[in-house]
Prior knowledge:
This protein has 90 residues and is an alpha+beta fold. The protein is built from three helices and five strands, in the order αββββαβα.
Amino acid sequence: MSLIGETLRTSWDGPGDGRPFLLGIDVGIFSDEHRPPVVPDVVLGLDVQAPDDCWEKQGRSWFVWRYGPPLFAAEFVSAPDGGELAKLNG
């Protein structure tokens, strides 16, 4: 996942016109404060300013009610060991 994040950070200048964007790796997306998060491998949001504490564990969360829905989120299922494939199959 670090390779994907670093590739995007170094090869994409962002949306342009000084618009902020947030690219996160393994960031919990909370759609509701009473539900557990979905944690995709990569998440991207446009016109989103990163919180000051984004490198601390409590700052590594995406609150939909605060930032809006992300533009893009991806989960890469790579091995059966982590149980990710079972989660997809329900």
